[in-house]
Amino acid sequence: MNKLEYLTRLRGFLQRYGLPEEDINDALTYYEEVFMDAGFGKDAETAESLGSPEELAAGILRESGIQVGSVNDAPTVGFNQQSGYTNCGNQQYDNRNKGNSGSNTVLKVIIAVLSFPLWFPVLIVLLSVLIVIFCLFFGLLIAFVSLSVSLVLGGFSIIAEIPQLALMMLGGGFAACSVSFLICRGLFRLIAPAFVKLVRKFVGWLRGIFVKGEKSYE
Amino acid sequence: MSFPINASLLDAMVLSIVQRSDTYGYEITQYLRNAVDISESTLYPVLRRLQKGDMLETYDKEFMGRNRRYYHVTPKGYEALDEYREEWLCHKRKIDSILLNEGVENHE
After folding, report:
1. B50: how many CB neighbours lie within 10 A of its CB?
2. Order of strands, edge to edge, in the sheet holding B66-73?
3. Which of A24, B34, B46, B97 is the most exposed place for a label (fewest CB within 10 A)?
4. Residue A218 has pLDDT above 50, yes or no
5. Chain A: nearest CA to B47, how far in angstroms?
6. Is any Cβ of chain A less than 8 angstroms from the Cβ of B48?
7. pLDDT over threshold 80, residue A28
8. Distance from CA of B79 to the nearest CA of A (A)
9. Which stretches of chain B score pLDDT less than 50?
10. Residue A47 to residue B60: CA distance in whole angstroms
């Protein structure tokens, strides 16, 4: 089997099982590269070492959470995931449970839609609580900032009449100003990246839902 | 006979290879083959998984009139690799203690 033939069959199989076009192209690019890196005139050899296009496709589909029944189920390398592990604590980066997300999405969407009357009020309440907390915090911050500014301004305005009090106010005001500056800067540094991350995640999530949704309702 | 290599171990080894220097799929497979018996088709799902987990990122570089996809370890990938290395040392010690009777004297 030559390169073109192999890749065409691979594409056909991936399409039949509804892998997203983007993922298909990625896989095809990768394997086209493998053929080319193996060297000219080695197509047949490479094709053989890759196994049949159907098996290869099954492996890719399995990794994307699409179960393929008919093609033999033997994993390529010992991916035997049920084997015991020594207990070394933290398994944060374990990908073992990342399997069948694709097939569950439709179900999740249906459940989410059906339980709409239930979660919508809860969502609104949660959102308002969040907003209230945010406003409260923000209000306190503004009050503190204005206090420090007014202390400084007030200190200047009465410096001629009551110098002692003015000095005290100025001192306190400057101290408060610096503290509020530190708080604002800290908050900004904390919030700005988190906010950007959140927005990006949200957009990605939204797109994920729509792309998957389209596919499953076609 | 040989011991099966599981998915986590492959992830860890691929991260380690790419960490040494950015490289491309075919070369990673060849490199892995120095240590484990894997087929050409094993690596792609691993790379894909690592990419989706934000541990690897890719960029294309021209090579003889075509594009070659290079892989690069992200900061998250570095973190994961450190974690994996620690886990591996711990795992290795425990296995060795039984398989090679290492550390037996301490128990007797």
Report:
1. 25
2. B23-24, B66-73, B56-63
3. B34
4. no
5. 10
6. yes
7. yes
8. 9
9. 108
10. 24
